[in-house]
Amino acid sequence: MDLGTSAARLSGWGRHPVLDGHMVRPERYGDLDRLPGALARGLGRSYGDAALRRDGTLCSMLRLNRMLSFDPATGVLVAEAGLSLAEIASCFLPRGWFLPVTPGTKFVTLGGAVAADVHGKNHHLDGCISEHVPWLELFTPGQGMRRCGPDEDPELFWATAGGLGLTGIIGTVALRLKPVPGPWLKVVHHPARDLDQILELFSDPALDAPYSVAWIDCLARGARLGRSVLMLGRHVEGGDPAPPFPLTPRVDLPCDLPAFCLGSFNVRLFNEAYYRLNAGKTQPFRSGLDPFFYPLDAVGYWNKAYGSRGFVQYQCVLPEDETRKGMRRILEAISSAGAASFLAVLKKLGGQGRGFLSFPRPGFTLALDMPFRGKATLALLGHLDQLVLEHGGRVNLCKDAHLGRESFQAMYPRLSRWLAVKRRVDPEGRLASSLSARLGLTEGP
Question: 136 and 223 in one domain?
């Protein structure tokens, strides 16, 4: 059967950059063995150029989304890599199971989540998603289909978890779900007047919770620099009917918004209103999982809010002993540039991700969106990268579209181990992406 190809003009979720390529859409799992040089692409929610390949072939995984088995004794789901996290949660939440780790959107594929080694609001307790994957099947260019896991060819597994699809096409994933008492969370908010106070709240043992995240005002200055709202959540039983867990957005943003909508004046007004609204929720309240974990998923194509030029998401992590000084310098740079949007979060991370290119490490991570404004944005990103390096941190690759090769090599000290696996499973360097060429992981423009 001829899989065929079609021309495609694609971008990441940030809509910057945009590249021309070719797409194949296999219908059957066995077809993956015939695509050794194709780069897998899921739902397109990585922000930058990790799933782009100029004039190259991309393999859409969206038709390979079957659930294959589930063991209620262990909670292990075996599914094809094109299955979305939304479909998993929708199916298993009524049965008392939930995702062990989830990023800020449920509209990502299972394979994409492993390839990015995503983390969530519970990283300080449960680590990355790879910690909950007993095994996976991988179609490599050089060695065909391989099964690997933490206890079976672990070098290949830890190169694949966080390897951004560059070791092969992830075909099947075994994911260990976790039992939950119901579809509700108990949530409480704690306002923080500045950066010092939010870091103290994160470290307060009396406020320990399974899930924690802070919205942070990246445009606040002076004495209010870093003002935030810490949001804590934990699963609870609920006698009420389960809240809706939608598989599609409730509304769609119909068009690109003009640039002035996200000007610094409007964002400052929004941030002031958001802080006042959420800082007052100091008494525990009940929330469904969807609004707590995935608030932006309610709006389809919300990336259009940044206009036709798109946006970049910048996410970095700093070691805990460097966070106070380093984050202050980063926030001052962002605030002075007036470049941040309303979407900015601060989280505390736990242990080092075991994937060779995994992003998390102990410390605090800041993530924010910035409208792309050409040279001004690129200059700011370069400055932020330098600050992150000076304080011993790193940038999240699956959200990146700009990082330089030398900075990348300094941020990821286990790169040599990843390259050794890459040479073993892809000796001809057939698997490449725009990101891999930019960072020197593979040859290319």
Answer: no
